[in-house]
Amino acid sequence: MNRFLMTTTALALGLTGPAFADMEAAQAFLDAEIGDTSVLTREEQEAEMQWFIDAAQPFQGMEISVVSETITTHEYEAQVLAPAFTAITGIQVTHDLIGEGDVVERLQTQMQSGENIYDAYVNDSDLIGTHWRYQQVRNLTDWMAGEGADVTSPTLDLDDFIGLSFTTGPDGKLYQMPTQQFANLYWFRYDMFTDEKNMADFQEQFGYELGVPVNWSAYEDIAEFFTGRDLSHMGIEGEIFGNMDYGKKDPSLGWRYTDAWMSMAGMGDVGEPNGLPVDEWGIRVNENSQPVGSCVARGGATNSPAAVYAVTKAIEWLEKYSPPTAAGMTFGEAGPIPAQGNIAQQMFWYTAFTADMVGDGADAVLDDEGMPLWRMAPSPHGAYWTEGTKIGYQDAGSWTLMESTPVDRAKAAWLYAQFVTSKTVDLKKSDVGLTFIRESTIDSEHFTERAPRLGGLVEFYRSPARVQWSPTGTNVPDYPRLAQLWWQNIGDAMSGDKTPQEALDQLCADQEQVMERLERAGVQGELGPVLNEEQEPDFWLSQEGSPKAQLENEDEEPITVSYDELIQSWQN
Question: Rounded CA gap, 122 and 398, in Å?
Fold first, then answer.
């Protein structure tokens, strides 16, 4: 048994101690797990590992606990990288994998109680507005320059990270460090779209070419065209659907909308990474970044015509063009469905599912040589969208250190966070989970070679288009409290208990109620909400930007583009 496997086995048996923390263990790990799947040379890898060994000396034998949600990338961290880190450094890491909602709940409990539940969290950057305002997480900019300087790697290379704008507050300080990122993109069956009969039939029926939809009008036409279509001439049996989504009243339903469905419709203002002064949650802020409203009456857009249009379309497409079971599904249940082979397109598809689309069980969407029959592309935008507006969501699970964590434990956890994001391991980790965080990994020769098997994922992340996909921004003052309002209210619209307008009126009122409580409590100081006085909606709807007035015609002229030409334009 090689040294790396021996040490991980010993860890499982509880037989290890500081004696295992040495370069021999690091070399065994590099031989067994990394090899040449790294952007660093072997000499550079060993130098980086030696730094971790030296920096960890004061913490040998310490046991720390960290937590993340359960996705492929974090499973790799917990099952492979955590034991390796322990073997190399002598710091024993327990990396728990739990549901995303549970991660937020534990973090919220630690914020409220001051009790150290975990020594580090992989916490979505969606909470950046929360962290910046409450100041209960360590400001990493100051941490790396001060208290944590002795445990900050000289090869960390923050400039190589592609998502730091998502984890930086309006004060210019870094509050979280990404460890995985994935976007929600448009997914479609390239083989169905390039089939000569399908192309000719679509042209005859709709009067324009079948291709990647640029706007929602084209997406709707394509959904109608493929739903119920006989594709036996392609050797595809079973009922075909032109859309895939989910609609169960569940916390994940809220993500569907806060994760930028509204921005895709065009609800928010122009701005990157998020619209200002009105973001994709419909929350408006003033010049001091203080939230001032969510409802149109206060200058927000959560219940604006664009928001109503967004929810109305989602419900319509779910009912007309999706599998009948989709309405009762959650995010996790719906995600794998396109791999079964009877979905023609999906506007809102997370690239975190890419690994499932190229592995075992994905035969229905792979050709005989294992190449994908599908592709991914930028999501189409709705009728209210304007150039320069965010057009989609990008998840950025990020290492977060709480102020309530003792300094020595925070230092040990920070070493682990840097290890699992280091250049030594990042290429291999990305190879497994396909959730890119580093420019050097994206631009590597390894992913140039692998790109044809990943359906456009690499091309997207190498393209200038990726900046229009971003997580929740700093307008949201308290993510845990506000996020739960979305799935409850949107769920009422999905079930038919309320109209989209009624549900969104209630949602924005509920958001403002939370912000009013924050304002009265003063817990966020000068950064907290200061709500505007209510005015007639026309006051705000007549002004430039968001909230936007009702369009006379929400059915735009449909536009499509050839996928091959789209990719070529990125590469040029």
Answer: 5
* Pair 173, 164: CB distance under 8 Å: no
Q: Quote the domain boundaries for residue 142.
A: 3-174+401-442
Q: Residue 314 and residue 328: Cα distance in Å, rounded?
A: 14
Cβ burial of 24 (10 Å; 0-12, 13-18, 19+) is middle
Low-confidence ranges of the chain (pLDDT < 50): 1-20
DSSP tag of 284: E
Contacts of 227 (CB under 8 A, 6+ apart): 240, 241, 242, 243, 320, 321, 344
Of 268, 220, 188, nearest to 468 (Cα)? Answer: 268
- Token pair recorded at residue 384: 């209210």
Q: Chain centroid to CA 349: how far?
A: 11
User: Does residue 479 share a domain with residue 430?
Assistant: no
- Which residues lie closer than 8 Å to 295 by C-beta, 6 or more apart? 302, 303, 505, 508, 509, 512, 534
* Same-domain check for residues 26 and 115: yes
DSSP string for residues in 129-161: HHHHHH--B--HHHHHHTTTGGGS-TT--GGGB
Using CA atoms, how far apart are residues 313 and 319, in angstroms rounded to an integer? 10
Does residue 9 share a domain with residue 122? Answer: yes
- Alpha-carbon gap, residue 514 to 485, rounded angstroms: 10
pTM over 0.85: yes
- pLDDT tens figures, 302-321: 999 999 999 999 999 999 99
Q: What is the pLDDT of residues 86-106, one digit of tens each?
A: 999 999 999 999 988 899 999
- Cα(518)–Cα(311) distance, rounded to whole angstroms? 28
Q: What are phi and psi of 301, to 5 degrees?
A: -140, 10
Sequence-ordered list of residues with C-beta below 8 angstroms from that of 449, at least 6 positions apart, any chain = none
